[in-house]
Amino acid sequence: MSDEPKATLTRYLHQTREALLSKVDGLSERDARLPRTPTGTNLAGIVKHCANVEIGYFGETFGRDWPDPDDPCFVSVDDFDADPQVDWYLPADVPVAALLDFYRRVWAFADRTIEELGLDAVGSPPWWGPPEDNRVTLHHMLVRVLADLAQHTGQADILREGIDGAVGWHGDNDSLPEGVDWPAYVARLTAIAESFPA
């Protein structure tokens, strides 16, 4: 199999990781942690979740242990028994900067798996059940993680816009047209929506 599919998937994985971290860039500890939805979704929690997803799917799935299990941002499978939401928030004694550093170390860990294994390498996520029932390829995991990460980066983009109006791929409005009267645009969309019964 050509290396091109792996290179393409890896390139998009790297870009999406960077886009996610850009959503936390420049925020205060409070703004990065503050719940923004009724279910508690917050930017630091999204980053922590995505980091631990990568550890699980590019690590334990392929028999590779995370080298620093005592890191306060690391969530083991057993941690979910005590708190099923443990990967969705950052404890008060862990600074956001430590979380961002953790995720960058996770990138290096995950990238080693991606570099060293072929797309057809087989693994098994132990939390999915018996290995014989849950065999997956690295290709499958790359697509799965990229899809998950893209979804959460989209959530983060919306949350960040609600904090300070920063939008776009890297927070610099690079994906929006210039010169748009946004309040007028939103008013027009609101009028359309309100023309229908509630």
What's the number of helices? 7
Low-confidence stretches: none
How much helix is in the residues? Answer: 40-55%
Oligomer: single chain
Determine Rg (CA atoms, Å).
19 Å
**What is the molecular shape?**
globular
Q: Which sequence of SSEs, written as H and E, runs from N to C? A: HHHHHEEHH
Provide mean pLDDT, rounded.
Answer: 93
Largest sheet: 2 strands, antiparallel
Write the layout of secondary structure elements.
Elements: H1 4-22, H2 29-33, H3 43-58, H4 79-82, H5 96-116, E1 122-123, E2 136-137, H6 138-164, H7 182-194
Antiparallel strand pairs: 1-2
Put the structure in a nutshell.
The protein is mainly alpha-helical and 198 residues long. The protein is built from 7 helices and 2 strands. The chain has a two-stranded antiparallel ribbon with strand order 1-2.
Please provide a written account of the structure.
α3 packs antiparallel against α6 (138-164). This protein has a two-stranded antiparallel sheet. The protein has helices at residues 4-22, 29-33, 43-58, 79-82, 96-116, 138-164, 182-194; strands at residues 122-123, 136-137. It has seven helices and two strands; from the N terminus they run αααααββαα. The protein is mostly helical and 198 residues long. The longest helix is centred in the last third of the chain and has 27 residues, at 138-164. The termini are far apart. The model has no long low-confidence stretch (mean pLDDT 93). The radius of gyration is 19 Å and the shape is globular.
